[in-house]
């Protein structure tokens, strides 16, 4: 069965987003790292896979966090041919700051590495820019431009509207994401 993969840093709202999309109850919490292994749900004749978050996980050792990150990479590699779409969820409030902090240490930010890795495997990617409800209207375009730039896309972000999709899982503002997912699903079925 083809799958839609939800990936991203811990506590960016992947499980909440899936719950709002599917209406199915998933474990989600305020502490990072509630999801520790892939969770699968049926969705419109496909399967949604909620991947564990990478990065800090409450109560997990550094070795455990590294093992989970390695498991994510192996899962994606092993299932690449079956993944119809990857939805990379980012927290708009912290994404640019986190990426800039990694870049300042001359390290490749995990989010950028994941985005490029998915493309290298020929997996179609949509970036769900989550928690837009926390961004002031006046800062909206600048925030989304910043996400695009850090992922190697030139501004304005609106030219990448098929890739960068602003959402608010908490508020249920998912219309554009649903539309983009439906478009990708139709391509896979054709």
- The total count of strands amounts to 6
So what's the oligomer here?
Answer: single chain
Helices and strands, in N-to-C order? EHEEHEHHEHEH
Shape: globular
Structural Rg: 16 Å
CATH architecture: 3-Layer(aba) Sandwich
Full CATH superfamily name: P-loop containing nucleotide triphosphate hydrolases
Number of helical regions:
6
The CATH class, by name, is Alpha Beta
Sheet with most strands: strand arrangement = 2-3-1-4-5-6
Give the biggest sheet: 6 strands, mixed
Based on secondary structure, the structural category is alpha/beta
If you consult CATH, what is the topology? Rossmann fold
- Binned, the helix content reads 25-40%
C-alpha end-to-end distance: 15 Å
Question: What portion of residues belong to β-strands?
Answer: 15-25%
């Amino acid at each position: 069965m083809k799958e839609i993969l939800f990936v991203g840093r811990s506590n960016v709202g992947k499980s909440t987003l899936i719950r709002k999309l599917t209406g199915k109850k998933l474990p989600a919490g305020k502490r990072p790292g509630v999801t520790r292994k892939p969770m699968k749900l049926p969705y419109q004749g496909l399967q949604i896979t909620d991947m564990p978050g990478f990065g800090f996980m409450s109560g997990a050792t550094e070795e455990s966090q590294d093992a989970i990150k390695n498991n994510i990479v192996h899962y994606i590699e092993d299932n690449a041919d079956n993944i119809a779409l990857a939805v990379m969820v980012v927290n708009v409030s912290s994404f640019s700051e986190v990426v800039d902090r990694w870049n300042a240490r001359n390290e490749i930010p995990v989010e950028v590495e994941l985005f490029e890795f998915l493309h290298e495997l020929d997996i179609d990617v949509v970036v769900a820019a989550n928690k837009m409800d926390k961004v002031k209207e006046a800062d909206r375009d600048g925030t989304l431009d910043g996400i695009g730039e850090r992922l190697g896309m030139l501004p304005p972000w609106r030219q990448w509207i098929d890739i960068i999709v602003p959402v608010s899982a908490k508020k249920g503002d998912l219309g554009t994401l649903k539309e983009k997912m439906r478009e990708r699903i139709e391509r896979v079925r054709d």
